[in-house]
Each structure stands twice: as C-alpha cells, then as structure tokens.
C-alpha cells in the first residue's frame, strides 16, 4: 500500500475519485496511526455546517474507504473516532521527512555524498504542491503543507551544498538560476549560484547575482546580505577559480556482451556499492544537535520546519551511525569470489558499468594479476602508481614507498565519487593499500580467495549458474535458439560460465555441430576438458593457473582427490590418500577452499565442482603413487566401517561379531551416535568405492561386510542388496570362496529384511553349502537357523522344523548360547501356527537367555514375538505391554527392522483396544519412516493397519485406498501378508462403500 500527499492525494499511485472519500482519507492521513475524532472528520467533510445525517453518512464514507483500500482492518473505529493504520514506508510525507532527517544529520557532520543521496531521494517523492486539491487557497495554506514546503526548500539547499562540496558545478547552475528567480529573498540559493558561476569561470556573472540580491534585500527589507553570502562574495573577488582540464578517468574494460542471470547477486552488489553511510538501525533516534547547520545563510526560522520533522517539541534530529562505526569502513567495499571460470570479472564489470552515473568523478580499473598465466601478482606499489597516474599525478611525484603512495591516493580520492574495480586480487594485503578513505567512493574486488582478512567488506561468493540462466547464456552467446533439450549440455558444462561460453563459441563457429553431438563429446569424462577449449578460452588452462599458485600440500591434495574420486571427502580419508598428518591435510584442504577449488559443504566435509573433479582425475592419472594411496584409503574406510559395526552390534551382547578382523588404522568412534552419523554420511562413498574397486581390491569385500550392520540398523535394505550383489559378482570372478560365502549370506539377509523370502532362501542355501565345504561349523549353524526361519515364513513347516533341529544341535555342540536363543525364537514362531501358548513358552525361554547374555536384540525380539502370539489369542491388553516394552528397548533410533515389526504390532493392538488416536499417530510415523527408507514391505504392513483403522472409523473408501496401495507394494514379497490384505479388501461390502 502507498499513500501520497506530496501532490494530489493518491492511493497505490492512483488518484482518489470520490470527493468525500478523498477528504476523509486526507484527514486520516494527516494524523497517521492516531485517532481522529469524529467531530474533526465531520469538519473535514462538511465544514462548519454538517448535515443532520452526518454521523450515519460518515459511517458510510468509512465503509467506502475500506472498500477502496481493500482491507477492512486498515480503518478501525476507536472511540472517539477512527484511526488509519499506516505501516512504515507507506506514506510519502513520512518517507520524505525520514530522508530529510538523514540528510540533516549528514549535513551536520559534513558527509556530503550522503547529503546528496538522501536529498535527491527526498525530492524525488515530490509530485507537486502538498495536499493539492484538498483545500481552498482562499482559506490559506494548512500548517502541514507549509511545513512540508519549507522542508523541501531546506532539502534543496542541502542538496546543492552537497553538489558544490563534491565539485559537481556544471549541472546545478540552471536549477539554481530558476530558484533565485522564484525565491528572490532566499539568500542560500543566491550564494550557491554565485559559487557555481565563480567555480565554472563566470566571475562577472557571479558578481552580478550578488549585486542583484543585495539590491533586492535593501529595497524590500532594508538589510544587507548575511555572513554566508558575504563570504561567498569575498571568495569571488579574491581570485578566479582554478579549473582542471583533466577528464574523469573511465578505465573500465568493456562489459560482457551477453551478461545473463544472477539478478539477485547483481541487485545485492549494486546495493552494497551504492549503500548509504548513514543508515539508521531500526527507527530514527533523535539526539540533541551539537551545533548549528553549516552554511544556513542566517535563517533561524528554517529550524522550525526541521524541528517539526521529529514531532511536536522535539529537538532537531540527527541520525546515529551504526552501533560500531569502526567495524564498517567509510568506503563501501564488495568482494566477489568464486572458482576459476565462475564469472567474477564479468559480474563486476557488468555492475560497474551500470553504476557509472553514480560515480561521476571516474571509474578506475586495475588487473592485480592474482591468477594470470605466466605473470606474478602485481605489487601494491605498482598498482598505486597506475591509479595515481590515472588521477593526473605526475609520475615523478608518485612516492616511492607504498604507505606514502597509499596516503596520496586516499587524499586524491577523498572529495570525489569514484568507483574502483580491483580485478583478480591475490590477497587482502595486496588490496588494502589501494582502498580509498572517502565515503563517496566504492570498491569492487574480484578474487578466487574470499579475502577474509579484508575487514568490513561485503562478500558475494559466486556459485555456478542455475540451469535456466545457463541455458540463457548458451542461447545468447551461440546465437542459436536451443531447445530445452540442451539442458544436458548445460549440466555437462557444470553450469560454469567459462565452460558455457566455450561451448557456445563452438556451437556458433560450427553450425553443423548439434547440441546433442557436442553433449556426446563432453559425456566422455576422461576427455571432457579437451572439448572445453576454444581460441583463448580454456577451462583447463584456467584451472592450471590455480594449481600453479598452490603450495605443495594443496597441490598434492588436488591430485589425490582425483585418485579416489568420491562424491565428497573428509580430512581423515584425505590424510590417508596424501600420506601426511591430518593437521597438514586440513590446512591443505582449507587452502583449496580459499581458492574455490573445493567447497566445504558442511564443517570438515569437502566436494569439488564437476570440472575441477575432471581436472583432478587428469592430474591423478600422472601420479605414480595413485594405486597405493587408493589402497590406503580403502583400508581406512574398511576399518572405520568395522569400528562402526562394533558399536552398532556389539559382539559381547549380540553374538559373534559379523565384522572382519582389523583392517587398517582408523580410530574408534567415541560413541554410537558418532558411529551412526559417520555411517549415514558415507553411504554415497561406500557405494562409489564398491562399484569402482570391487573387482580390483579385496579390501572392498571387507568394507562391505563391515558396513552390513550399519545399513541393517538404519533400514537401508536397497543399499545392502546393491552392495552385496556387486561383491558377490567380484568374489565369484576372483575365485575367493570365503568372500563368496560371506556375500551370499549377507545378500540373503538383505533380501530377508526386504521380505524377499524365496530369493533369500536360495542364496542362504548356497551359502550354507559353501560354509560346510569350508568347514565353518559356526557359520553353518547360523545358516541352518536362517533356513528354518525362512521355510517357516514360506509355510514349509516340516522342513523348517528339520533345519532348526539341526541348527540347535550344532549350537549346543559349540556352546553357543546366543545362537541357541535365536533358534528358540524361531521355534516359537513355528509353533505359533499350531499352539500360540506353546509358542509363548519358547519366546519366554529366548527372552530369559537374552537377559542373561545382555542382548537387547534378543530381548526385543522375544517381547515382539510374544505380542504377536497374544494377538493370535486375542489378548490385546496383555499384548500392548509387550510391544511397548519392545519399542522401549530399541528406542527411537534403534535397529529399524525391530522397530518396524514392533510398531506394526502396536498399531494393531491399539486399534483393537479403541485407542484410535494413539494408533493413528503411531501408524503415521511408521509409514513415513518406511517410505523414507524405501522399505516397501513395512510400508505395505503399515498401510494394512491404516486401512483397518480407517474402516473401524467408518471411512471405508479411505480404507480401500490404503489396502489397494498395500497390495501393490507387497506384490512378490510376503505371500501371507499379501493374502491377508486381499482378504480385507474382499471383505469390504458394497453397503459400506455407498
């Protein structure tokens, strides 16, 4: 919403048509946010003789005003009248007066660039006589209009004073000439016109202005001009003004021909370079002025208008600077950073060209050569000499020392509004001596480094362009109307502007080269950089410059990144790749971040851009130590996964360790939470390493075995199956029968967890044969126990009993209490088909064994199985306690398979007990977690229970929808569960669905 009183009354920039509504709105706007009594509003609408129906008519006009504003709450009835809500920045008179206050404060302290900026902003709001058309001139001008008019004249005086102080004489002469004619008694405008004429070499005309003013004052008022005018007269008489013949420097190189996108960054950079040095923090805070306004031309009456800006009886206001002015430089400095080829210089030059009119005293440009092929960084003294020469300083007068030359530069720039572009800086130390002190200037610096030591600078880190921006740049530079299918080409360029420009240049040069053909060339990762070179544009050369500037550790880190080629990296694995300490590794990676060759995506975790990754691979291919470095990294990963597994599934409580023997030198995790966090972060890395090295390094077999417990605990069954399929194929190719047996067993377990029972049984039987062949009795016993469990799930009860009897016999021979407890659990599940009470007895024996051993998993499983047996008996109230205890044992973040099984049972019994709200809440969480893990089996079971709850709640259509989705996800998994859902669907009657 915008209200306008500086001219004819407007709302949202449009005139208000209705006369009464216009008068009502004006009366409310003159006291924004304050209650205007009804009697005052009637006076504004009808004068001294309101009609008898004035009160009712006023209500009607208020209703029309509310409709006009489109907001019923804008105008509220508050006894004894109405109040109009006006938010900050909505009323032009308030915005005008706020700018005037800032201009006054800047005027008091001599901050002329801010005076000019704020005055111009205030005057730009002026559309004509304030309150135009809202009063009869014969009745006299309202006090508000008088105050605003006088304030405008003061703001004009300040504006022209600032222009004079900043040396901008030529443009303001005609305006001042017109004002002296319009206001023949206003001394300030005459004084300013005299100085403009004098300083532009028109001394005689300046003296004529003084003579005309003096004559008018003497004839009409009987007084002579005041001291400010007399001082200006003496200056004119004293000497002719010196005029410089040097044009303002305009050194900016041409801007990019096809600048595209980055609208938010451009806007932010423009705002940073043109920001006000006197921005109020929060509301404007008035404080007592410490001195008179300078060059006020002896007009004490002017201060009444300024006092009114702050409200009745308020002192003249000045605006405080920020709370800690020392922390913010007076000159705005913006630092544009980013990797090679990301478009830093293009952005800086584009913005600099758009700001030329804001910096009329010149634009300076220096290439500091921080990353220029074949050249060293430009020393500060040379950069200072170049800048001073551009400002007209004789080379013989440039000081020899950087400090003296820097001081001279600051002196030359202090009274000017000049923009400096310092391109391709190497360090903050190189930039610091080149910074001006004048707050009319601004500086934009580009660098691959963030220049963090450059205090107070606004930083703009550039990342690759968006897909839409990238496509726009390709179209603009190539001159082709590329279809949206060129998005593949965009991604192969990494959305990096330099790569996009090279690609566009190739498309422009060869019209027969189609985007698809070029994408095919770029798709071959090993040669992608070969196709990102054209003429003097080259991604590889740009990255090579960055490499050449690195210290030896950082260069080694970049090479070894390409050796392992992971999605992301942490310090410990990089230390193994580099063969140095973690402290040195961390410093090397930080250096790569500083020059934008790496991005720190979270604390201590790094990733390169795709094209940097290609370049690192090229470097690694020439590295003789590549293979040994990769093996060291693989061993570290395997040992870290082993340490993870020891915490996730402690062998002293959860049976024999399923992790391999020690593999490398990774440190143990401090606790389970740290182990789980590491395991979660490294899923992409383990997948990548397995796919890439399973056929060349047996260490990968150990890594995947060690990682099983983590993925099982987290419910990542798809990842488990994927990894073990790779390992099984590689183990078969290598002829390693023990590795094959481990992979078969783990792949069988992954399929069981995903409820792929028949696949799991086939794999388990193959593993069992191998374990027997290898003489591994303990592993044979576990495989037989698994066979019995799987057969029971398939309904092959006699075969299941046989396998379990063999397994329990082996467990007793081996004195394996844990293995025996597991078999008791399986036997309980088997007996549940014939006698649930007998089944509970087996489960209670398994529970007792679990408690003796201290196994949380056995205890949880026993409680869960007892709960399901009680469901079969219909003992819902007793069952709920066992399911709740099972969930308590595992907690919110325990083994996913166990949590899922006990969660499904708990939902069922809560629903049967009529605890519908708790059942729905538990089921909703379970369903969300299953979907998050891509656990289709648990999703199907959760939807089955959701449907039961919906049907019981009288929502059969919702129940049918849940069961239909459950059928779809359970297809080909658990035949029993699938048949159960099909029966539930079939049981829905037509009358229920009507």
Could you characterize what this model shows?
- 59% of the residues lie in helices and 6% in strands.
- The protein is built from 44 helices and 16 strands.
- α16 (428-431) links the parallel β9 and β10 (442-447).
- The longest helix has 23 residues, at 143-165.
- It starts with a strand and ends with a helix.
Descriptive terms for the model:
44 helices, 16 strands, 6% strand
Widest sheet, order of strands:
8-9-10-7-11
> What is the helical fraction, as a range of percent?
55-70%
SSE class: mainly alpha
- Which band does the percent of strand residues land in? 5-15%
Distance between the termini: 51 Å
Q: Care to count the β-strands?
A: 16
Radius of gyration: 41 Å
Shape, per Cα inertia axes: flat
Mean pLDDT, to the nearest integer, reads 85
How is the biggest beta sheet arranged? 5 strands, parallel
Q: Helix segment count?
A: 44
Low-pLDDT parts are: 276-329
């Amino acid at each position: 919403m915008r209200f306008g009183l500086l001219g004819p009354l407007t709302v949202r920039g449009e005139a208000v048509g209705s006369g009464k509504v216009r008068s009502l709105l004006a009366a409310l706007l003159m006291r924004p946010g304050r209650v205007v009594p009804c009697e005052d509003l009637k006076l504004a609408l009808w004068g001294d003789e309101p009609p008898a129906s004035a009160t009712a008519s006023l209500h009607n006009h208020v209703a029309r005003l509310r409709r006009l504003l489109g907001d019923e709450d804008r105008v509220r009835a508050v006894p004894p009248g109405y109040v109009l809500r006006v938010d900050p920045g909505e009323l032009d008179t308030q915005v005008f007066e706020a700018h005037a206050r800032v201009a006054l404060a800047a005027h008091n302290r001599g901050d002329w660039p801010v005076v000019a900026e704020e005055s111009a902003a205030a005057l730009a709001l002026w559309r004509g006589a304030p309150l135009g058309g809202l009063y009869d001139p014969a009745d006299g001008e309202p006090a508000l209009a008088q105050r605003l008019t006088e304030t405008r004249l003061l703001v004009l005086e300040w504006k022209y004073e600032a222009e004079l102080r900043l040396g901008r004489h030529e443009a303001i002469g005609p305006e001042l000439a017109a004002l002296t004619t319009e206001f023949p008694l206003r001394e300030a405008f005459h004084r300013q016109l005299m100085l403009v004429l004098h300083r532009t070499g028109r001394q005689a005309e300046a003296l004529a202005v003084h003579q005309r003013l003096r004559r008018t004052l003497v004839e009409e008022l009987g007084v002579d001009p005041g001291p400010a005018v007399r001082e200006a007269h003496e200056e004119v008489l004293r000497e002719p003004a010196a005029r410089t013949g040097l044009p303002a420097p305009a050194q900016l190189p041409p801007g990019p021909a096809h600048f595209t996108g980055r609208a938010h960054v451009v806007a932010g950079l423009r705002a940073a370079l043109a920001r006000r040095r006197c921005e109020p923090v929060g509301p404007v805070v008035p404080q007592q002025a410490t001195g008179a306004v300078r060059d006020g031309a002896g007009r004490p009456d002017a201060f009444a208008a300024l006092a009114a800006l702050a409200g009745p009886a308020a002192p003249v206001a000045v605006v405080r600077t920020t709370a800690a002015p020392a922390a913010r430089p007076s000159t705005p400095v913006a630092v544009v950073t980013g990797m090679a080829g990301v478009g830093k210089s293009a952005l800086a030059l584009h913005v600099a060209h758009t700001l030329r009119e804001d910096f009329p005293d010149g634009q300076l440009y220096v290439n500091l050569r921080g990353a220029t092929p074949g050249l060293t960084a430009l020393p500060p003294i040379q950069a200072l000499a170049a800048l001073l020469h551009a400002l007209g300083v004789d080379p013989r007068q440039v000081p020899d020392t950087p400090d003296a030359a820097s001081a001279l530069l600051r002196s030359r720039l202090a009274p000017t509004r000049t923009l400096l572009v310092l391109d391709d800086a190497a360090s903050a130390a190189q930039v610091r001596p080149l910074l001006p002190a004048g707050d009319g200037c601004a500086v934009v610096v580009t660098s691959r480094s963030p220049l963090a030591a450059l205090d107070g600078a606004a930083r703009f880190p550039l990342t690759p362009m968006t897909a839409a921006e990238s496509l726009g740049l390709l179209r603009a530079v190539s001159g082709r109307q590329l279809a949206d299918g060129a998005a593949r080409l965009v991604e192969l360029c990494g959305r990096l502007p330099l790569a996009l420009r090279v690609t566009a240049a190739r498309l422009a040069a060869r019209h027969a080269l189609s985007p698809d053909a070029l994408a095919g060339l770029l798709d071959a990762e090993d040669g992608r950089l070969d196709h990102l070179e054209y003429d003097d544009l080259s991604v590889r050369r740009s990255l090579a410059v960055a490499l050449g500037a690195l210290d030896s550790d950082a260069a080694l880190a970049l090479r070894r990144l390409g050796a392992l080629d992971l999605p992301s990296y942490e310090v410990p694995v990089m230390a193994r790749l580099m063969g140095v300490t973690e402290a040195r590794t961390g410093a090397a990676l930080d250096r790569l971040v500083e020059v934008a060759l790496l991005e720190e995506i979270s604390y201590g975790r790094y990733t390169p851009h795709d094209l940097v990754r290609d370049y690192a691979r090229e470097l690694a291919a020439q590295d003789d130590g590549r293979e040994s470095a990769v093996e060291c990294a693989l061993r570290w990963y395997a040992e870290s996964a082993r340490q993870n597994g020891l915490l996730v599934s402690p062998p002293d409580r959860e049976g024999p360790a399923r992790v391999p023997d020690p593999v490398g030198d990774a440190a143990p995790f401090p606790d389970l939470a740290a182990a789980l966090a590491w395991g979660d972060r490294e899923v992409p890395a383990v997948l990548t390493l397995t796919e890439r090295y399973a056929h060349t390094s047996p260490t990968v077999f150990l890594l995947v075995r060690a990682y099983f417990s983590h993925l099982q605990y987290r419910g990542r069954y798809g990842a488990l199956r994927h990894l073990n399929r790779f390992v099984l194929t590689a183990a078969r190719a290598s002829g390693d029968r023990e590795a094959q047996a481990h992979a078969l067993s783990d792949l069988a377990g992954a399929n069981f967890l995903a409820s792929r029972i028949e696949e799991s049984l086939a794999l388990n039987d193959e593993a069992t044969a191998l374990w027997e062949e290898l003489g591994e009795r303990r592993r044979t016993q576990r495989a037989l126990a698994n066979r019995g469990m799987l057969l029971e799930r398939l309904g092959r009860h006699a075969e299941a009993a046989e396998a379990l009897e063999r397994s329990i016999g082996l467990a007793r021979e081996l004195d394996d209490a844990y293995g025996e407890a597991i078999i008791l659990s399986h036997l309980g599940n088997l007996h549940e088909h014939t006698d649930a009470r007998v089944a509970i007895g087996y489960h209670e024996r398994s529970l007792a064994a679990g408690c003796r051993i201290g196994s949380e998993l056995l205890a949880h499983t026993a409680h869960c199985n007892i709960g399901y047996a009680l469901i079969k008996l219909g003992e819902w109230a007793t069952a709920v306690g066992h399911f709740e205890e099972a969930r308590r044992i595992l907690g919110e973040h325990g083994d996913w398979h166990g949590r899922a099984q006990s969660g499904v049972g708990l939902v069922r019994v809560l629903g049967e007990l009529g605890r519908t709200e708790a059942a729905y809440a538990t089921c909703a969480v379970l369903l969300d977690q299953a979907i998050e893990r891509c656990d289709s089996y648990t999703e199907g079971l959760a939807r089955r229970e959701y449907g039961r709850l919906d049907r019981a709640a009288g929502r059969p259509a919702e129940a049918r929808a849940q069961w239909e989705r459950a059928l779809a996800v359970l297809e080909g998994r658990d035949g029993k569960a699938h048949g159960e859902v099909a029966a539930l669907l079939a049981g829905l009657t037509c009358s229920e669905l009507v």
